[in-house]
What does this fold into?
Amino acid sequence: MRKVIFLTAVVAFSFAFGQNVIWNEVAKSREGSEKELYRINPAVSKAEYLGEVEVQGFSGDDAKVFGLIYKKAKEIGANTFSYRPFESVDGKMQNLDPWNYRISLYYMATDEIPVEKGLLYIYAPPAQDQNISFNKESTKFKPRTFTKRSLTDGETYIISTRKLLGSSVKFKADVQQPAQYMQLQAFQVQSAPYGEAGINLKSGDIIRLERSFADFLSMIYMEFK
It folds into this structure.
């Protein structure tokens, strides 16, 4: 009997705190075959507003959450997005709450979407601390954080998870190339559920990310220097 009550409680708890992505508004839709869904600053970008989704509830599976957002975006032909904050009672813009936030969806011509160059983004695991060595500089990541590093043209960089059976990635910087994105993970990650553009490379527990998913993590994770 206790087992039945416990399982019922677990199911109820999971349902109550399950994550959901809903439409708040669809202003317009358009045909589009673009695979990307990049983050932009609509205040300085020539973007066409298409609609808005709201994320309700929290999930530690960031790829799954982004997959749901990506699916909504592609229903109306969006290829860019931005965070839309809620207003507090005193009129101030609130910081992102991982349990409830809004995302505005847009369309931009691909050649007009801003591209960052000469940068490296490193994202922490979603649920555990992680120590790494970045060119012999030790850095400790808290869960759901990221850091951004400027690269020197032609310099060789080594990222290591500093474990006995850990991973390392070595690359030579080219500041004319688009930004690179890597995430630290302790488990196997499959292809992203949101299309061909997704998580596609893995070197042990250091994963190279495609920009769409990385841009999403930059929105929901906290940056540290």
Notes: Residues 2-16 form the longest helix (15 residues). The longest strand covers residues 48-56. The two ends are 52 Å apart (CA to CA). Residues 1-17, 187-191, 196-203 have pLDDT under 50 and may be disordered.
